[in-house]
Amino acid sequence: MRITQKAMVTSSLTGLNNNLTALVKVQNQLATGRVLNRPSDSPIDTNKSMQVRSDLGRVAQQDRNITDAQSRLDQTDSALQGLQDLLKRVQALTVQGLNTGGNDATSSAALATEITALRADMLGVANTSINGRPVFGGVTSGAVAYQPDGTYAGLGQGEGSPEDHPVLRRISDNEVLRVDVTGPEVFGPDGANLFAVLQGIADKLNTSPVDAAALSADLAALDVAQDRVSTAQATVGARSSRVQKAAELNITRELALSAQRRDIEDVDIPKASMELSAQQLGYQASLAVTAKILQPTLMEFLR
Amino acid sequence: MSALSTLNTANTALAAQQRALEVTAQNIANVNTDGYTRQRAELQSIGASTVPAFFSVSKNVGGGVNADTVARIRDSFAENRALAEHATNARYTVQSSAYAQIEDAFREPGDTGLQTSLSEMWSSWEDLSTATDIPAARRAVLESTATVVGSLQTTRATLDAQWGQTREDLATLVEDVNAATAQISSLNRSIQRASQAGVTTNELADKRDALVLSLAQKVGGTASPGVDGMVDVLVGGSALVSGTARIELAVTGATTADELAGSPLAVVTVPGGTKVRVGGTAGGEVEVLSTVIPQYRDALDKTAADLAAAVNAAHATGTDGYGALGGDLLESSDGGPITAANLAVAITDPGRLAASSVPGKVSADGSHALAMARLGETGGVDSGYRQLITQLGVEASVSTRNVTIQSTITSTVDTNRQAVSGVSLDEEMTQMLTFQHGYQAAARMITAMDELLSTLINSTGLVGR
What we know:
The structure holds two protein chains of two kinds. Chain A is mainly α. Chain A is about 65% helix and about 5% strand.
């Protein structure tokens, strides 16, 4: 093959250009810190990256859901705890009221007054709210779960009932958890709920003489109510531990996904630096060779 | 053979070497000229008279040298190959840069692409599910939906702008081609006249062949030699230039991407209106305009339509903030079928967002908002879109690779061409020496003959004087 000066210049230029292109590619990767800048850089990695990004978005979302669920469950739990304390006091007062021998009408009336006050306290607990919504009100859009007369004003009657409208939080990709306990589940069905029982006790203590047999029946009803509250507490506790577990899993998942995303998108700095050095060397070599080769012609030697 | 005829032989030698030196000078002068083909003075010995005749005085020694012909040294196979490879290279380059622009339009993978805004939209629904009664959460869903719509519209508008730009480029290119064919045919005419007059046409032919090469890059085509040193240029079977005659090209069909379905784009001859299968840059642009961009435009429209269908169908089963069933969330702003361009958010009142699944009642239920959020995983829009981006990535990387491979092929062909027709300074130096020595020797020959004659004229017949 016949080699001409122009051919040499052209091929030198092509070589220099190729080297420079490779150099710029590595330089670009190092400067942006990313190896994946456009879909054609690696279609498969692009797909993975988009998937991981949307997974990461969901993980962040579930993190918010978990926080919300946790605070709701905590609020419910502390309300239930307060309710337990109130119930104990009511029980004690009722037992005291049963002790008709030691009580005259005045002290019975005092007991009745205290129980009425406790009923109001319980109503306050029942209307405990979080973010302006009653925790025991199900999905109601109203501000209270119970009216002052003790009737349920919430929406959602409890698990299994036809009026069931659970408040759900998504705590992982495939786990949706119920985070509410409705009023009827805690206070009993309307008409025979805790407020009616308390009202009944107060009324009985106000009538003289006190009907001991009826008051005993109310005491039994209080036991049932206490059991119901305990059950609700246990349910809330169990859900809370599920939420905690989900929170841990979520953090692990987020770390794993972030690592995966970095693996796919981000530049491997030691590798890229090595590549940069290699490309630089190649470029310098081709510059040096070009300078050496293009210098001499026959003219240097003809005198 | 007389002494005077030897002088004449030496004289032709002087003239021939000088002409060869002139050609060498021309070669050296054009060592860096693009499209220059090296030339060579064809030295030919002048033979003695070979006609037998009674009074023949020939002693069978030739009569010197002749350097009338100056040849262009080129390999016509390599030249034709160069036309084809340059055309293919130009076509792939156009396609590859179109794909790069489409990739830019989609902005994936990154924080500004549609994927991110879709994720944010589903996320805002999930946020709404935990706070249905907070107006800000409802507002956030509307805003994030508007962001998705905006993202789709921006991408679509970018693609449309790219289409329009490419269409304009194609029209300008065809104008260029028409100018080039006019020049080629007029050069053909000059070459015809010059060669009929017996004048060297090398430089004209160089100029014309460079034009043919640039024409091939623009619209493809092949050159076939005609009479009197002219060439015919054929593009996709139509003779654009045939000797001194030529026809023009024009672009017909859609002027916006929307018209494409009704009137496909074509490059046709004027006169005649015959469709020409063009190659080169124009071929690449026609392909980009009629296949590549429309393909991604349609896919984007489909994404928009799928999104609207999925979101509206799901939204209609929920209950909004007023206790009514959810209406359409996304609609077409012009009443036509939903595309990425006319997609619009149909709801302005945040209360109309269906977050609840308690039918017929106003409630704080958020389970339907949660179901809407799950559309991101089950609705098929996100996965369809990811598939679209993967396809774009594959096609774009294939086209990049095509360009890389084709550039290598093209530069190899160019090197081969250069190897034949390029000027080598070393070679020209050697030639210069050779011809210089030839010239010196011929001059010495004349001196020798001069001395010979001088002896004859001045010293003959002086014996004994």
